[in-house]
Amino acid sequence: MNRGLSTPSGRSPRAAPAPRRPLSRVQRLAGTLAVILAVVVVVRLRSGGARTVPDELLGTWTTSAPGYADRALELTPTTLRLHMGASPVHDYPIRRVLRRETGASTVFTIEYERDGDRDALSFRFVGTPHPAIRIEHQSFVWRRDVRR
User: Fold this and answer.
1) Which of 71, 72, 78, 89 reaches 20 to 30 Å from 41, CA-CA?
2) pLDDT in tens, 10-31
3) How far apart are CA 71 and CA 67, in angstroms?
């Protein structure tokens, strides 16, 4: 048996931990910034984009392309509304708006809910001199209808 220092249970006492030095002001600031950055990254990754349509896209868009003259695409801050000629208007809630700058134009992807599923509408937007959108896989443009 060890006859040195021991506790009543017969175990050797552990050395007391060295006292901790208080964090410096710079270390506290760096820690705070790291936490804030982590929160921003998590929030941004979870949201993945805005839920509202940017102002430059708001309104009703029409085209003179054959077969589409009686149709319109309307964007409100939170709804994609499709006018399909004599058919009733279809409203779809917007879930996310993604934006990617590509030189002179901007590519937007509007994710919306349709019949319980997610769907998407992607188009290229040019703001000047006259606002126009070109929907992905279409060769014609849609222009904002100022009459509606």
Assistant:
1) 78
2) 666 676 777 788 888 887 777 7
3) 8
